[in-house]
Amino acid sequence: MVRQSPFQLRLVDTPQGPLTYTLTRKRVKNINLRIGSGGEIKVSLPIRCPIQQGDDFIREKSGWIVDALRRREERQMEPLPPVSREECARLLAGALGRVYPLVEPLGVAFPALKLRKLKSQWGNCHWTQGYITLNTALARCPAELRDYVALHELVHFLHHDHGPGFYTRMDALMPDWRQRRKALKSYGGALEREQTGKV
Ligand SMILES: [Zn+2]
Question: How far is the CA of 194 from the centre of ligand 1 (A)?
Answer without folding.
Answer: 25
